[in-house]
Amino acid sequence: MSHVHRFSYLLVIPLVLAGRLAGGAEILWQERSETASPVLPRGYSPLPSLSGLIKELKPAVVNIHTTQVLKPRLRRSQSPRDSRLEGFFGPDPFEHYFGAPRGERKFPSLGSGFIISTDGYILTNYHVVRNATEIRVKLADERTYQAKLVGGDQKTDVALLKVSAKGKLPTVYLGNSDKLEVGDWAIAIGSPFGLGYTVTTGIISGKDRVIGHGPYDDFLQTDASINPGNSGGPLFDASGNVVGINTAIVAGGTGIGFAVPINLAKELLPQLRRTGKVKRGWLGVGIQDLTKDLAGEFGVPGKSGVLIAQVFEGSPAEKGGLRAGDIIMSLNGRRVGETRELTRRVAVLSPESQAYLQVFRGGKTKRVTVKLSEREAGEAVALGRSGKSAEEMSLGLTLAPLTPEKARRLGVDERIRGLVVTGVDRTGPTAGFIRPGDIVVAVNRSSVRSLNDFQRALGKGSKVLLLIQRGSSQLFLVVGR
Protein backbone atom coordinates (compact mmCIF):
# COMPACT_ATOMS: atom_id res chain seq x y z
CA MET A 1 0.00 0.00 0.00
CA SER A 2 1.32 3.42 -0.95
CA HIS A 3 1.97 6.13 1.55
CA VAL A 4 -0.81 8.20 -0.06
CA HIS A 5 -3.42 5.45 0.38
CA ARG A 6 -2.27 4.79 3.90
CA PHE A 7 -2.62 8.51 4.75
CA SER A 8 -6.16 8.65 3.29
CA TYR A 9 -7.29 5.74 5.48
CA LEU A 10 -5.90 7.46 8.55
CA LEU A 11 -7.97 10.54 7.73
CA VAL A 12 -11.22 8.63 7.18
CA ILE A 13 -11.16 6.53 10.39
CA PRO A 14 -10.93 9.49 12.84
CA LEU A 15 -13.68 11.27 10.94
CA VAL A 16 -16.01 8.25 11.27
CA LEU A 17 -15.22 7.84 14.97
CA ALA A 18 -15.77 11.53 15.57
CA GLY A 19 -19.18 11.28 13.94
CA ARG A 20 -20.15 8.37 16.18
CA LEU A 21 -18.92 10.08 19.32
CA ALA A 22 -20.72 13.27 18.40
CA GLY A 23 -23.95 11.36 17.88
CA GLY A 24 -23.46 9.57 21.19
CA ALA A 25 -22.79 12.85 22.95
CA GLU A 26 -26.06 14.28 21.66
CA ILE A 27 -28.04 11.38 23.14
CA LEU A 28 -26.04 11.34 26.34
CA TRP A 29 -26.46 15.00 27.19
CA GLN A 30 -29.93 15.85 25.99
CA GLU A 31 -32.25 16.94 28.80
CA ARG A 32 -35.65 15.38 29.31
CA SER A 33 -38.61 17.71 28.99
CA GLU A 34 -40.71 18.10 32.13
CA THR A 35 -43.76 16.96 30.15
CA ALA A 36 -42.06 13.90 28.66
CA SER A 37 -43.24 10.53 29.91
CA PRO A 38 -40.56 8.26 31.41
CA VAL A 39 -39.06 5.62 29.17
CA LEU A 40 -39.58 2.32 31.02
CA PRO A 41 -39.22 -1.33 30.03
CA ARG A 42 -42.42 -3.00 28.90
CA GLY A 43 -44.39 -4.35 31.89
CA TYR A 44 -42.48 -2.23 34.41
CA SER A 45 -44.36 -0.05 36.94
CA PRO A 46 -42.51 2.33 39.27
CA LEU A 47 -42.80 1.88 43.04
CA PRO A 48 -45.24 4.32 44.61
CA SER A 49 -43.79 7.10 46.76
CA LEU A 50 -43.97 6.64 50.53
CA SER A 51 -44.08 10.36 51.19
CA GLY A 52 -47.84 10.45 51.86
CA LEU A 53 -47.62 7.56 54.31
CA ILE A 54 -44.61 9.07 56.09
CA LYS A 55 -46.47 12.36 56.53
CA GLU A 56 -49.24 10.47 58.32
CA LEU A 57 -46.89 8.48 60.55
CA LYS A 58 -44.32 11.11 61.47
CA PRO A 59 -46.45 13.16 63.93
CA ALA A 60 -46.80 10.14 66.28
CA VAL A 61 -43.05 9.34 66.36
CA VAL A 62 -41.16 11.13 69.14
CA ASN A 63 -37.59 11.92 70.08
CA ILE A 64 -36.67 10.99 73.65
CA HIS A 65 -34.00 12.93 75.52
CA THR A 66 -32.95 11.58 78.92
CA THR A 67 -30.47 12.33 81.64
CA GLN A 68 -29.12 9.00 82.83
CA VAL A 69 -27.14 8.13 85.93
CA LEU A 70 -24.00 6.09 85.41
CA LYS A 71 -23.12 4.32 88.63
CA PRO A 72 -19.55 3.25 89.40
CA ARG A 73 -18.72 -0.30 88.42
CA LEU A 74 -15.75 -2.45 87.61
CA ARG A 75 -14.47 -2.46 84.05
CA ARG A 76 -16.40 -5.10 82.24
CA SER A 77 -14.83 -7.98 80.38
CA GLN A 78 -16.57 -8.41 77.07
CA SER A 79 -17.87 -11.79 76.04
CA PRO A 80 -17.88 -12.81 72.37
CA ARG A 81 -21.56 -11.87 72.25
CA ASP A 82 -20.89 -8.40 73.71
CA SER A 83 -18.38 -7.67 70.98
CA ARG A 84 -20.91 -8.36 68.24
CA LEU A 85 -24.24 -7.23 69.62
CA GLU A 86 -24.99 -3.97 71.36
CA GLY A 87 -27.94 -1.82 72.25
CA PHE A 88 -27.99 1.47 70.46
CA PHE A 89 -26.11 3.27 73.21
CA GLY A 90 -23.30 0.69 73.31
CA PRO A 91 -20.70 0.72 76.09
CA ASP A 92 -20.14 3.68 78.40
CA PRO A 93 -18.62 6.56 76.35
CA PHE A 94 -16.70 7.88 79.39
CA GLU A 95 -14.97 4.54 79.80
CA HIS A 96 -13.57 4.78 76.26
CA TYR A 97 -11.77 8.05 77.01
CA PHE A 98 -11.13 7.97 80.74
CA GLY A 99 -11.01 4.30 81.68
CA ALA A 100 -13.29 2.75 84.29
CA PRO A 101 -15.57 5.33 85.96
CA ARG A 102 -14.56 6.39 89.48
CA GLY A 103 -17.81 7.92 90.65
CA GLU A 104 -21.44 8.42 89.78
CA ARG A 105 -21.95 10.52 86.63
CA LYS A 106 -24.89 11.93 84.74
CA PHE A 107 -24.89 12.06 80.96
CA PRO A 108 -27.46 12.85 78.25
CA SER A 109 -28.84 10.12 76.04
CA LEU A 110 -31.02 9.99 72.94
CA GLY A 111 -33.65 7.58 71.73
CA SER A 112 -36.98 7.34 69.95
CA GLY A 113 -40.50 6.22 70.73
CA PHE A 114 -44.07 6.34 69.41
CA ILE A 115 -47.43 7.46 70.79
CA ILE A 116 -49.98 4.65 71.13
CA SER A 117 -52.91 6.51 72.73
CA THR A 118 -54.39 9.99 72.34
CA ASP A 119 -54.00 10.60 76.09
CA GLY A 120 -50.20 10.36 75.88
CA TYR A 121 -48.96 6.79 76.41
CA ILE A 122 -45.68 6.14 74.58
CA LEU A 123 -43.83 2.90 73.84
CA THR A 124 -40.03 2.72 73.72
CA ASN A 125 -37.12 0.51 74.82
CA TYR A 126 -36.42 0.02 78.49
CA HIS A 127 -32.70 0.66 78.01
CA VAL A 128 -33.51 4.12 76.59
CA VAL A 129 -34.99 5.27 79.93
CA ARG A 130 -33.22 2.98 82.39
CA ASN A 131 -31.72 4.92 85.34
CA ALA A 132 -33.05 8.17 83.86
CA THR A 133 -33.51 11.07 86.28
CA GLU A 134 -35.25 13.14 83.60
CA ILE A 135 -37.17 12.15 80.47
CA ARG A 136 -38.18 14.73 77.85
CA VAL A 137 -40.27 13.88 74.80
CA LYS A 138 -40.21 16.03 71.67
CA LEU A 139 -42.88 15.76 68.98
CA ALA A 140 -42.49 16.45 65.26
CA ASP A 141 -44.20 19.84 65.68
CA GLU A 142 -41.51 20.85 68.23
CA ARG A 143 -43.77 20.50 71.27
CA THR A 144 -41.79 19.16 74.24
CA TYR A 145 -43.14 17.44 77.34
CA GLN A 146 -41.77 15.99 80.54
CA ALA A 147 -42.52 12.26 80.61
CA LYS A 148 -42.78 9.80 83.46
CA LEU A 149 -41.89 6.13 83.36
CA VAL A 150 -45.11 4.17 83.91
CA GLY A 151 -43.48 0.75 83.74
CA GLY A 152 -40.68 -1.25 82.18
CA ASP A 153 -39.50 -4.78 81.62
CA GLN A 154 -35.76 -5.31 81.27
CA LYS A 155 -36.03 -8.91 80.04
CA THR A 156 -37.91 -7.89 76.90
CA ASP A 157 -36.54 -4.30 76.74
CA VAL A 158 -40.00 -2.70 76.62
CA ALA A 159 -40.99 0.47 78.50
CA LEU A 160 -44.19 2.53 78.74
CA LEU A 161 -44.05 6.31 79.21
CA LYS A 162 -46.80 8.90 79.82
CA VAL A 163 -46.99 12.60 78.97
CA SER A 164 -49.74 15.06 79.85
CA ALA A 165 -50.79 17.29 76.97
CA LYS A 166 -53.74 19.52 76.16
CA GLY A 167 -55.98 17.93 73.60
CA LYS A 168 -55.55 14.63 71.81
CA LEU A 169 -52.15 13.54 70.57
CA PRO A 170 -51.51 11.83 67.21
CA THR A 171 -51.14 8.05 67.41
CA VAL A 172 -49.99 5.07 65.39
CA TYR A 173 -51.78 1.77 64.84
CA LEU A 174 -50.30 -1.40 66.32
CA GLY A 175 -50.19 -4.20 63.76
CA ASN A 176 -49.88 -7.99 63.96
CA SER A 177 -46.23 -9.09 63.91
CA ASP A 178 -47.24 -12.78 63.80
CA LYS A 179 -48.44 -12.29 60.22
CA LEU A 180 -45.12 -10.93 58.98
CA GLU A 181 -43.22 -12.93 56.40
CA VAL A 182 -39.56 -12.72 55.47
CA GLY A 183 -39.42 -10.36 52.51
CA ASP A 184 -42.23 -8.06 53.67
CA TRP A 185 -41.43 -4.34 53.46
CA ALA A 186 -40.25 -2.56 56.62
CA ILE A 187 -40.02 1.17 57.39
CA ALA A 188 -38.04 2.58 60.32
CA ILE A 189 -38.50 6.12 61.65
CA GLY A 190 -36.31 7.57 64.38
CA SER A 191 -33.49 9.94 65.26
CA PRO A 192 -30.20 8.20 64.41
CA PHE A 193 -27.19 10.11 65.76
CA GLY A 194 -29.54 12.92 66.76
CA LEU A 195 -30.68 13.51 63.15
CA GLY A 196 -34.36 14.00 63.83
CA TYR A 197 -37.00 12.05 61.95
CA THR A 198 -34.91 10.01 59.59
CA VAL A 199 -36.80 7.46 57.46
CA THR A 200 -35.22 4.27 56.14
CA THR A 201 -36.75 1.32 54.32
CA GLY A 202 -35.90 -2.32 53.79
CA ILE A 203 -37.45 -5.71 54.36
CA ILE A 204 -38.01 -8.17 57.16
CA SER A 205 -34.91 -10.29 56.66
CA GLY A 206 -35.46 -12.81 59.47
CA LYS A 207 -37.81 -13.84 62.28
CA ASP A 208 -37.51 -15.58 65.66
CA ARG A 209 -33.90 -14.40 66.08
CA VAL A 210 -32.09 -15.29 69.32
CA ILE A 211 -29.30 -12.78 69.96
CA GLY A 212 -28.46 -13.56 73.60
CA HIS A 213 -30.37 -10.62 75.04
CA GLY A 214 -32.42 -12.74 77.46
CA PRO A 215 -34.58 -15.83 77.97
CA TYR A 216 -37.44 -14.47 75.86
CA ASP A 217 -35.51 -13.57 72.70
CA ASP A 218 -37.82 -13.53 69.68
CA PHE A 219 -36.52 -10.67 67.56
CA LEU A 220 -37.43 -9.54 64.07
CA GLN A 221 -34.40 -8.93 61.86
CA THR A 222 -34.47 -6.13 59.31
CA ASP A 223 -32.11 -4.52 56.84
CA ALA A 224 -33.89 -1.15 57.11
CA SER A 225 -31.01 1.01 58.34
CA ILE A 226 -31.21 1.63 62.09
CA ASN A 227 -28.46 3.28 64.09
CA PRO A 228 -27.74 4.75 67.54
CA GLY A 229 -30.69 7.01 68.35
CA ASN A 230 -33.26 4.79 66.59
CA SER A 231 -33.55 2.75 69.76
CA GLY A 232 -37.17 2.51 70.87
CA GLY A 233 -38.48 3.81 67.57
CA PRO A 234 -41.17 2.10 65.49
CA LEU A 235 -40.72 -0.41 62.69
CA PHE A 236 -43.71 -0.15 60.34
CA ASP A 237 -45.10 -2.46 57.70
CA ALA A 238 -46.07 -1.19 54.24
CA SER A 239 -49.57 -0.31 55.49
CA GLY A 240 -48.21 1.95 58.23
CA ASN A 241 -48.88 -0.39 61.16
CA VAL A 242 -46.22 -0.75 63.87
CA VAL A 243 -44.85 -4.29 63.78
CA GLY A 244 -41.76 -3.86 65.98
CA ILE A 245 -39.73 -1.71 68.35
CA ASN A 246 -36.20 -1.12 67.03
CA THR A 247 -33.86 -2.41 69.74
CA ALA A 248 -30.40 -3.66 68.80
CA ILE A 249 -27.79 -3.74 66.07
CA VAL A 250 -24.80 -5.87 65.22
CA ALA A 251 -21.79 -3.75 66.12
CA GLY A 252 -19.76 -3.21 62.95
CA GLY A 253 -22.38 -4.91 60.82
CA THR A 254 -24.29 -3.50 57.87
CA GLY A 255 -28.00 -4.01 57.35
CA ILE A 256 -28.48 -6.19 60.42
CA GLY A 257 -30.84 -4.72 63.00
CA PHE A 258 -33.30 -6.25 65.43
CA ALA A 259 -36.73 -5.24 66.69
CA VAL A 260 -39.00 -6.51 69.47
CA PRO A 261 -42.16 -7.93 67.81
CA ILE A 262 -45.09 -5.63 68.60
CA ASN A 263 -47.29 -8.58 69.59
CA LEU A 264 -44.94 -9.30 72.49
CA ALA A 265 -45.18 -5.68 73.62
CA LYS A 266 -48.98 -5.73 73.33
CA GLU A 267 -49.16 -8.73 75.67
CA LEU A 268 -47.14 -6.84 78.29
CA LEU A 269 -48.96 -3.50 78.03
CA PRO A 270 -51.88 -4.27 80.40
CA GLN A 271 -49.51 -5.23 83.24
CA LEU A 272 -47.12 -2.33 82.57
CA ARG A 273 -49.97 0.17 82.64
CA ARG A 274 -51.67 -1.36 85.69
CA THR A 275 -48.70 -2.25 87.94
CA GLY A 276 -45.58 -0.86 86.26
CA LYS A 277 -43.92 -4.27 86.03
CA VAL A 278 -44.40 -7.69 84.49
CA LYS A 279 -45.20 -10.83 86.46
CA ARG A 280 -44.76 -13.97 84.40
CA GLY A 281 -46.56 -17.26 84.48
CA TRP A 282 -44.77 -20.46 85.58
CA LEU A 283 -45.75 -24.00 84.63
CA GLY A 284 -43.11 -25.89 86.62
CA VAL A 285 -41.67 -28.35 84.11
CA GLY A 286 -38.26 -29.16 82.65
CA ILE A 287 -38.66 -29.38 78.88
CA GLN A 288 -36.69 -30.30 75.80
CA ASP A 289 -37.18 -30.22 72.05
CA LEU A 290 -38.73 -33.28 70.47
CA THR A 291 -36.13 -34.81 68.14
CA LYS A 292 -36.94 -37.37 65.46
CA ASP A 293 -35.57 -40.19 67.63
CA LEU A 294 -37.54 -39.06 70.69
CA ALA A 295 -40.70 -38.70 68.63
CA GLY A 296 -40.24 -42.27 67.44
CA GLU A 297 -39.71 -43.60 70.97
CA PHE A 298 -42.84 -41.88 72.27
CA GLY A 299 -44.92 -42.68 69.19
CA VAL A 300 -45.60 -39.06 68.30
CA PRO A 301 -46.72 -38.47 64.71
CA GLY A 302 -44.40 -35.95 63.10
CA LYS A 303 -41.90 -33.95 65.16
CA SER A 304 -44.07 -31.17 66.52
CA GLY A 305 -44.35 -30.65 70.26
CA VAL A 306 -42.32 -30.16 73.41
CA LEU A 307 -41.29 -33.06 75.62
CA ILE A 308 -41.69 -32.77 79.39
CA ALA A 309 -38.56 -34.28 80.93
CA GLN A 310 -39.30 -33.27 84.51
CA VAL A 311 -42.23 -32.09 86.61
CA PHE A 312 -41.20 -30.10 89.69
CA GLU A 313 -42.65 -31.11 93.01
CA GLY A 314 -45.46 -28.85 94.17
CA SER A 315 -45.57 -27.02 90.82
CA PRO A 316 -48.72 -26.05 88.88
CA ALA A 317 -47.86 -28.79 86.38
CA GLU A 318 -47.87 -31.47 89.09
CA LYS A 319 -51.13 -30.19 90.52
CA GLY A 320 -52.63 -30.17 87.01
CA GLY A 321 -51.69 -33.81 86.39
CA LEU A 322 -48.81 -33.42 83.94
CA ARG A 323 -46.14 -36.14 83.91
CA ALA A 324 -42.60 -36.61 82.69
CA GLY A 325 -42.86 -38.09 79.20
CA ASP A 326 -45.91 -36.03 78.22
CA ILE A 327 -45.59 -34.11 74.97
CA ILE A 328 -47.22 -30.66 74.92
CA MET A 329 -48.78 -30.19 71.49
CA SER A 330 -50.60 -26.88 71.97
CA LEU A 331 -51.13 -24.07 74.49
CA ASN A 332 -54.43 -22.20 74.60
CA GLY A 333 -55.37 -23.52 71.18
CA ARG A 334 -52.10 -22.61 69.41
CA ARG A 335 -49.64 -25.25 68.26
CA VAL A 336 -46.29 -25.45 70.06
CA GLY A 337 -43.19 -26.26 68.05
CA GLU A 338 -40.14 -25.89 70.31
CA THR A 339 -39.04 -25.19 73.88
CA ARG A 340 -38.23 -21.48 73.38
CA GLU A 341 -41.68 -20.88 71.96
CA LEU A 342 -43.41 -22.60 74.90
CA THR A 343 -41.26 -20.74 77.44
CA ARG A 344 -42.08 -17.36 75.86
CA ARG A 345 -45.78 -18.04 75.59
CA VAL A 346 -46.15 -19.25 79.16
CA ALA A 347 -44.10 -16.29 80.41
CA VAL A 348 -46.46 -13.68 78.93
CA LEU A 349 -49.43 -15.27 80.70
CA SER A 350 -50.32 -13.76 84.06
CA PRO A 351 -49.86 -15.75 87.28
CA GLU A 352 -53.12 -17.31 88.47
CA SER A 353 -54.37 -17.52 84.87
CA GLN A 354 -55.49 -20.79 83.31
CA ALA A 355 -53.34 -22.55 80.70
CA TYR A 356 -55.16 -25.06 78.46
CA LEU A 357 -52.76 -27.70 77.17
CA GLN A 358 -53.22 -30.43 74.59
CA VAL A 359 -50.94 -33.28 75.66
CA PHE A 360 -49.90 -36.46 73.87
CA ARG A 361 -49.59 -39.39 76.31
CA GLY A 362 -49.49 -43.13 75.64
CA GLY A 363 -50.62 -42.83 72.06
CA LYS A 364 -53.57 -40.56 72.84
CA THR A 365 -54.16 -36.83 73.19
CA LYS A 366 -55.86 -35.30 76.18
CA ARG A 367 -56.64 -31.81 77.44
CA VAL A 368 -55.06 -30.65 80.70
CA THR A 369 -55.89 -27.39 82.49
CA VAL A 370 -53.18 -25.87 84.68
CA LYS A 371 -53.47 -22.82 86.94
CA LEU A 372 -50.14 -20.99 86.61
CA SER A 373 -48.13 -19.48 89.44
CA GLU A 374 -45.51 -16.70 89.34
CA ARG A 375 -42.33 -17.59 87.48
CA GLU A 376 -39.70 -15.98 89.71
CA ALA A 377 -41.09 -17.53 92.90
CA GLY A 378 -41.53 -20.90 91.19
CA GLU A 379 -38.00 -20.96 89.80
CA ALA A 380 -36.57 -20.28 93.26
CA VAL A 381 -38.44 -23.30 94.61
CA ALA A 382 -37.24 -25.50 91.74
CA LEU A 383 -33.60 -24.46 92.10
CA GLY A 384 -33.68 -24.96 95.87
CA ARG A 385 -34.38 -28.70 95.54
CA SER A 386 -31.66 -29.18 94.34
CA GLY A 387 -23.60 -49.85 98.20
CA LYS A 388 -21.95 -51.80 95.52
CA SER A 389 -18.71 -50.81 93.95
CA ALA A 390 -18.74 -49.25 90.50
CA GLU A 391 -19.18 -51.74 87.70
CA GLU A 392 -18.56 -51.37 83.98
CA MET A 393 -21.92 -51.49 82.24
CA SER A 394 -23.09 -51.59 78.63
CA LEU A 395 -23.59 -48.33 76.71
CA GLY A 396 -20.06 -47.41 77.72
CA LEU A 397 -21.14 -46.18 81.15
CA THR A 398 -19.61 -46.88 84.54
CA LEU A 399 -22.38 -46.63 87.13
CA ALA A 400 -22.74 -46.74 90.88
CA PRO A 401 -25.74 -46.55 93.22
CA LEU A 402 -26.67 -43.00 94.21
CA THR A 403 -26.38 -42.53 97.97
CA PRO A 404 -27.70 -39.47 99.88
CA GLU A 405 -24.09 -38.43 100.48
CA LYS A 406 -23.31 -38.52 96.74
CA ALA A 407 -26.52 -36.64 96.01
CA ARG A 408 -25.49 -33.86 98.39
CA ARG A 409 -22.05 -33.70 96.82
CA LEU A 410 -23.58 -33.47 93.33
CA GLY A 411 -26.01 -30.80 94.47
CA VAL A 412 -29.18 -32.75 93.70
CA ASP A 413 -32.24 -33.51 95.81
CA GLU A 414 -31.47 -36.35 98.23
CA ARG A 415 -34.82 -37.91 97.33
CA ILE A 416 -33.70 -38.56 93.74
CA ARG A 417 -33.24 -42.24 93.06
CA GLY A 418 -31.04 -43.66 90.34
CA LEU A 419 -27.49 -44.55 89.32
CA VAL A 420 -24.69 -42.00 89.19
CA VAL A 421 -22.39 -42.00 86.16
CA THR A 422 -18.79 -42.27 87.32
CA GLY A 423 -17.20 -42.84 83.91
CA VAL A 424 -17.98 -42.63 80.18
CA ASP A 425 -16.20 -44.61 77.48
CA ARG A 426 -15.02 -42.11 74.86
CA THR A 427 -15.73 -44.65 72.10
CA GLY A 428 -19.12 -45.73 73.48
CA PRO A 429 -22.58 -44.74 72.18
CA THR A 430 -23.19 -42.30 75.05
CA ALA A 431 -19.96 -40.32 74.56
CA GLY A 432 -20.77 -36.65 74.06
CA PHE A 433 -24.27 -37.07 75.49
CA ILE A 434 -23.70 -38.22 79.06
CA ARG A 435 -20.95 -37.09 81.42
CA PRO A 436 -19.68 -38.11 84.85
CA GLY A 437 -21.96 -36.79 87.56
CA ASP A 438 -25.13 -37.36 85.55
CA ILE A 439 -27.72 -39.59 87.20
CA VAL A 440 -29.60 -42.26 85.27
CA VAL A 441 -33.13 -42.07 86.69
CA ALA A 442 -34.96 -44.35 84.25
CA VAL A 443 -34.20 -46.68 81.34
CA ASN A 444 -36.90 -47.33 78.74
CA ARG A 445 -39.42 -45.66 81.11
CA SER A 446 -38.52 -48.01 83.99
CA SER A 447 -37.06 -46.52 87.17
CA VAL A 448 -33.63 -47.84 88.06
CA ARG A 449 -32.16 -47.96 91.56
CA SER A 450 -29.65 -50.75 91.18
CA LEU A 451 -27.32 -52.16 88.57
CA ASN A 452 -29.67 -55.14 88.15
CA ASP A 453 -32.55 -52.74 87.46
CA PHE A 454 -30.44 -51.09 84.79
CA GLN A 455 -29.55 -54.38 83.05
CA ARG A 456 -33.14 -55.65 83.10
CA ALA A 457 -34.54 -52.37 81.73
CA LEU A 458 -32.06 -52.27 78.83
CA GLY A 459 -33.90 -55.01 76.95
CA LYS A 460 -32.67 -56.13 73.54
CA GLY A 461 -33.68 -53.25 71.31
CA SER A 462 -31.20 -51.32 69.17
CA LYS A 463 -32.12 -48.04 70.88
CA VAL A 464 -32.41 -47.10 74.55
CA LEU A 465 -34.46 -44.27 76.06
CA LEU A 466 -32.71 -42.77 79.11
CA LEU A 467 -34.01 -40.23 81.63
CA ILE A 468 -31.05 -38.29 82.99
CA GLN A 469 -30.85 -35.99 86.02
CA ARG A 470 -28.26 -33.25 85.52
CA GLY A 471 -28.06 -30.76 88.35
CA SER A 472 -31.61 -29.54 89.00
CA SER A 473 -32.87 -30.54 85.54
CA GLN A 474 -33.92 -33.73 83.81
CA LEU A 475 -33.79 -34.64 80.12
CA PHE A 476 -34.58 -37.62 77.89
CA LEU A 477 -31.95 -39.10 75.59
CA VAL A 478 -32.20 -41.74 72.89
CA VAL A 479 -28.95 -43.64 72.30
CA GLY A 480 -28.10 -46.55 70.04
CA ARG A 481 -26.00 -49.54 71.02
Textual characterization of the structure:
- The protein is α+β, with helices and mostly antiparallel strands.
- The chain has 4 domains: 53-75 and 82-163, Trypsin-like serine proteases (Thrombin, subunit H); 174-275, Thrombin, subunit H; 281-382, Pdz3 Domain (Roll), CATH 2.30.42; 388-480, PDZ domain (Pdz3 Domain).
- 23% of the residues lie in helices and 35% in strands.
- Strands 23, 24, 25, 26, 27, 28 and 29 form a 7-stranded antiparallel beta sheet that branches. A 6-stranded antiparallel beta barrel has the order 1-3-4-7-6-5. Strands 9-10-11-14-13-12 form a 6-stranded antiparallel β-barrel.
- It starts with a helix and ends with a strand.
- Mean pLDDT is 78; it is low at 1-28, 73-101 and 380-392.
Summarize the topology.
Layout: H1 3-29, H2 51-57, E1 61-70, H3 80-84, E2 85-87, H4 93-98, E3 105-115, E4 121-124, H5 126-129, E5 132-138, E6 144-153, E7 158-163, E8 173-174, E9 185-190, E10 198-209, E11 219-222, E12 234-236, E13 241-250, E14 257-261, H6 262-275, E15 281-282, E16 285-289, H7 292-298, E17 306-311, H8 316-320, E18 327-331, E19 334-335, H9 339-347, E20 354-361, E21 364-371, E22 373-374, H10 375-384, E23 391-392, E24 397-401, H11 404-410, E25 419-424, E26 439-443, E27 446-447, H12 451-458, E28 463-470, E29 473-480
Parallel strand pairs: 8-13
Antiparallel strand pairs: 1-3, 1-5, 2-13, 3-4, 4-7, 5-6, 6-7, 9-10, 9-12, 10-11, 11-14, 12-13, 13-14, 15-22, 16-17, 17-18, 18-19, 18-20, 20-21, 23-24, 24-25, 25-26, 26-27, 26-28, 28-29
